[in-house]
Backbone:
């Protein structure tokens, strides 16, 4: 009876973990696609490096490196397309996540609950905003090598 | 050592349970005991150290060993976890 309960719980945990991994895959794929939208001259890290966030423990440190680089990449990309955006290009949100991850290591159960909830909220907001930036970049015309935006208006072309 | 929130809540091991004890055994030179507690420890340590080298010098240290060791670590972690659950 007790063994059956544990087995059921184990299966639920396994399914939960698999769903968690799947969500992480979609989240990181979104970040990779966002960086792929940036010109190689503006991008501050290879887009494929976002997958390093899958490495346990290492991702706690790497978050402090990756998120500022994403911010800097999209800031440069928007500016090179002469379309600067309002706000800090996810800088504050991006730094909040690794900070919350570190705070979550403090072995106080009550704190872990609050931090976990906060992390989830920040994670969702970051994901949504990153997707918005990605879609904005897709809709904007690309800049040429000199950072000049190509015109869409045929009347202005020679 | 840090407590595992997962184990505290559910009473069951998480996929990373045994990591700290395994590392402790490795530091004390008990390789067999270390591998028994958490078989993925060595590929995981290699993965972390190699990834740092790759980030410092991507030309010299290619990304392929990262992919291989990450897959090996994941498979060993999942396999060990399922084995412990059964």
Residues:
């Amino acid at each position: 009876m007790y063994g059956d309960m544990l087995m059921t719980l184990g299966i639920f945990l396994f399914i939960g973990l698999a769903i968690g991994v799947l969500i992480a895959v979609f989240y990181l794929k979104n970040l990779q696609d966002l960086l792929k939208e940036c010109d190689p001259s503006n991008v501050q890290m290879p887009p494929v490096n976002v997958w390093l966030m899958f490495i346990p423990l290492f991702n706690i440190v790497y978050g402090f490196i990756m998120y500022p680089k994403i911010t800097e990449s999209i800031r440069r990309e928007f500016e090179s397309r002469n379309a600067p955006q309002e706000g800090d290009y996810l800088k504050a949100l991006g730094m909040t996540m690794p900070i919350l991850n570190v705070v979550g290591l403090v072995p106080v159960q009550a704190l872990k609950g609050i931090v976990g909830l906060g992390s989830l909220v920040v994670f969702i907001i970051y994901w949504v905003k990153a997707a918005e930036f990605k879609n904005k970049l897709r809709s904007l015309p690309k800049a040429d090598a000199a950072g000049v935006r190509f015109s869409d208006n045929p009347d202005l072309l020679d | 050592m840090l407590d595992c929130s997962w184990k505290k809540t559910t009473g069951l091991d998480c996929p990373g349970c045994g990591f700290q004890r395994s590392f402790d055994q490795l530091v004390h030179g008990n390789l067999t005991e270390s591998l028994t507690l958490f078989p993925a420890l060595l590929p995981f340590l290699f993965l972390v150290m190699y990834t740092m080298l790759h980030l410092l010098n991507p030309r010299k240290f290619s990304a392929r060993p990262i992919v291989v060791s990450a897959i090996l670590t994941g498979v060993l972690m999942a396999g060990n976890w399922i084995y412990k659950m059964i």
